[in-house]
Amino acid sequence: MNRHSDQLDATFAALADPTRRAILARLASGEASVTELAEPFAMSQPAISKHLKILERAGLISRGRDAQRRPRRLEGKPMADATEWLERYRQFWEGNFQRLDALLEEMKTTETKAREKKRGRKNVHKSRGDQ
Amino acid sequence: MMMNPGQLAITAHGDREIVMTRVFNAPRKHVFAAWTRPELVKQWLLGPPGWSMPVCEINLKVGGKYRYEWRRDSDGQSMGMGGVYQEIVPPERLVVTEQFDEAWYPGHALITLVLTEKDGKTTATQTVLYESQEARDAVMKSPMESGVAASFDRMAELLAAME
């Protein structure tokens, strides 16, 4: 259960905020400067910079080479790592539920057998009664 | 929501809830039994390969306690949790509190399991309600259990926005 790294923690924390998700969605269509990123949000540049810092620390974005604009761009690997981890997690529950599927099948079979046995006994009584 | 047996859906709901839905190809009285009888719970609620469930105690009455413990057989690493039954309506509804031994979120969570049956199939909807948004967010930061489930939902949302 302790497979997760600090990197994953940072990624999940970064993704837990709607503004940061919107920033990532915007960067998915290409790099952008802080000013450009601040435009669609009713937020000051320092507030946006704070979100960018969190995303940067999570490794989800990086800064481009243009020294003047300092454009931010999306980094794919942490997202890929997080998705991979989540897929393992989903498999964890799937594993549990597949075992439950098997158990429920077993319960059905046991119940059907018990019912047939009961009916079988009843039929015996009935045929005896007919005689 | 229309679902086929075997499909697992995990979604974040509001600020404090996480919802997990799964369809089983069985009547709900069996699903309810599998969720509440220790000898049955022990057969499926095991987690990743290599883990077993040496402790599974259930006192199925309102105010009664339950206690689960898992163990990784390779190195003896263990994990435990427990809680109290709040509502028991066989075979359709179960409400319990949940608290892990090693607290990874503040307070406890309330888990509601609702079973609905149609054409011999049972839909199990499990809702985890945290005490506060802070608690759920803490879970979100901890890639365990439902926390990851919520992140998964947010991730899906983000990936959809990125397309």
Proportion of residues in extended strands of chain A = under 5%
Order of helices and strands of chain A: HHHHEEH
Number of domains of chain B: 1
- Sequence stretches where pLDDT stays below 50 over 5 or more residues of chain A: none
Q: How many strand elements of chain B?
A: 8
List how many beta strands of chain A DSSP finds: 2
Rg of chain B, rounded, reads 16 Å
C-alpha end-to-end distance of chain B: 24 Å
What share of the residues of chain B lie within helices?
25-40%
Q: What strand order characterises the main sheet of chain A?
A: 1-2
Concise overview:
The complex is a heterodimer of chains A (131) and B (163). Helices cover 71% and strands 5% of the residues of chain A. Chain A contains five helices and two strands; from the N terminus they run ααααββα.
Ordered list of secondary-structure elements with their pairings:
The complex is a heterodimer of chains A (131) and B (163).
Chain A: H1 6-15, H2 18-27, H3 34-38, H4 45-57, E1 61-63, E2 72-74, H5 76-130
Antiparallel strand pairs in A: 1-2
Helix pairs in contact in A: 1-4, 1-5
Chain B: E1 8-13, E2 17-24, H1 28-36, H2 38-44, E3 51-58, E4 65-72, E5 78-89, E6 93-100, E7 109-118, E8 121-130, H3 133-141, H4 145-162
Antiparallel strand pairs in B: 1-2, 2-8, 3-4, 4-5, 5-6, 6-7, 7-8
Helix pairs in contact in B: 1-2, 3-4
What can you see in these coordinates?
The complex is a heterodimer of chains A (131) and B (163). In chain A, 71% of the residues lie in helices and 5% in strands. Chain A has helices spanning 6-15, 18-27, 34-38, 45-57, 76-130, and strands at 61-63, 72-74. Chain A has five helices and two strands, in the order ααααββα. Chain A has a domain at 6-76: Orthogonal Bundle (Arc Repressor Mutant, subunit A), CATH 1.10.10.10. Chain A is rod-shaped. In chain A, α1 (6-15) runs antiparallel to α4 (45-57) and α1 packs across α5. Chain A has 131 residues and is mainly alpha-helical. Chain B has a single domain (8-162), classed as Alpha-D-Glucose-1,6-Bisphosphate, Chain A, domain 4. In chain B, 26% of the residues lie in helices and 43% in strands. Chain B has helices at residues 28-36, 38-44, 133-141, 145-162, and strands at residues 8-13, 17-24, 51-58, 65-72, 78-89, 93-100, 109-118, 121-130. In chain B, a hairpin with a 2-residue loop joins β7 (109-118) and β8. In chain B, α1 crosses α2 (38-44) and α3 (133-141) crosses α4. Chain B starts with 7 loop residues before the first strand and ends with a helix. The chains are: A mainly alpha (131), B alpha+beta (163). Chains A and B meet through α1, α2 and α5 of A and β2, α1, α2, α3 and α4 of B.
